[in-house]
Design goal:
The protein is α/β, with parallel strands linked by helices. The protein has helices at residues 2-11, 26-35, 62-72, 91-97, 130-141, 154-163, 165-182, 187-207, 212-218, 225-235, 238-261; strands at 20-22, 40-42, 56-58, 82-84, 104-108, 118-124, 144-148. Helix content is 54%, strand content 11%.
Length: 263
């Protein structure tokens, strides 16, 4: 995800030479340097100069967040704002590990950011200056759309809906592809049928003012094939199971945040 944000920023005109990455892994530093010519990569926070930096971005796994914050605690206070894309870890805990730093923007992006088609839920603590928030949102917009959250707790719900959401789409793509193959299509044609159907349906929905239920009704003729398929899904409670799954993901995000807060 950090690579996606870096690539998006550079594509929007940011000079690679103005970006410094703290990356402990030597192979990953080499890969970044090869991909983004001119970028600065260091192996430790102590080697990074944060003076004059407009925005710090925390892009690590949740289990590494505390250690990363502790390494930045001595120098982060000179930075106008910090953008965290660490899943589940709350502003209060980040600030505690950062030595009382409070100018934190939290975001929950998703993996389509890798192709510039992501969406991020964004929450800013009250101490974030407007200029810092603008810089953070510019970085995120380079990877896709943004939804602003008035409450930090809403980021857990964003996690359940869109953060985990690509996996739901891939899951249904698996099913549609497997169904096509069981009906006799080869794998390449089965994927083409499934992928193009999803892509076209999303484009149609985005181009229409109608609700998804209305669009579904338009292709569900009485006594027809689609009605038979939807009826089978409804009899098996697929929609409600799907809603329950999204809520379960949001609950798990809250649990992970609670666990991080105990560190």
């Amino acid at each position: 995800m950090a690579t996606a944000l870096i690539g998006g920023a550079i594509a929007r005109g940011q000079a690679a030479s103005a970006i410094t990455v703290i990356e402990p892994s030597a192979p990953q530093r080499a890969a970044l340097a090869a991909r983004f010519a001119g970028i600065h990569c260091v192996d430790d926070a102590a080697r990074a100069t944060l003076t004059g930096v407009d925005l710090a971005v925390l892009a690590v796994k949740p289990l590494h967040a505390r250690a990363a914050c502790l390494s930045l605690a001595g120098s982060i206070h000179a930075v106008p704002a910090l953008l965290s894309i660490v899943a589940g870890v709350r502003c209060a805990d980040l600030g505690r590990w950062l030595g009382g730093y409070t100018r934190i923007v939290r975001a929950m992006p998703n993996t389509p950011a890798l192709v510039g088609a992501g969406i991020s839920g964004v929450f800013a603590s009250q101490d974030v200056p407007l200029a810092g928030l603008a810089t953070a949102t510019d970085v995120l917009r380079a990877a896709g759309e943004i939804v602003t959250c008035a409450r930090e707790a809403a980021l857990d719900d964003v996690t359940g809906v869109s953060g985990s959401g690509p996996a739901y789409v891939f899951y249904f793509l698996e099913g549609l592809t497997e169904a096509a193959m069981e009906l006799g299509f080869g794998e390449a044609d089965a994927r083409k049928l499934a992928y193009t159907t999803f892509d076209g349906a999303i484009k149609l929905a985005q181009a229409s003012a109608a609700e998804p239920s209305a669009l579904r009704a338009q292709v569900t003729s009485k006594g027809g094939t689609t009605e038979r398929a939807i009826g089978e899904l409804e009899r098996n409670g697929v929609k409600q199971h799907f809603i329950d799954a999204v809520k379960a993901a949001a609950l798990r995000a809250r649990e992970l945040g609670d666990a991080a807060g105990r560190e």
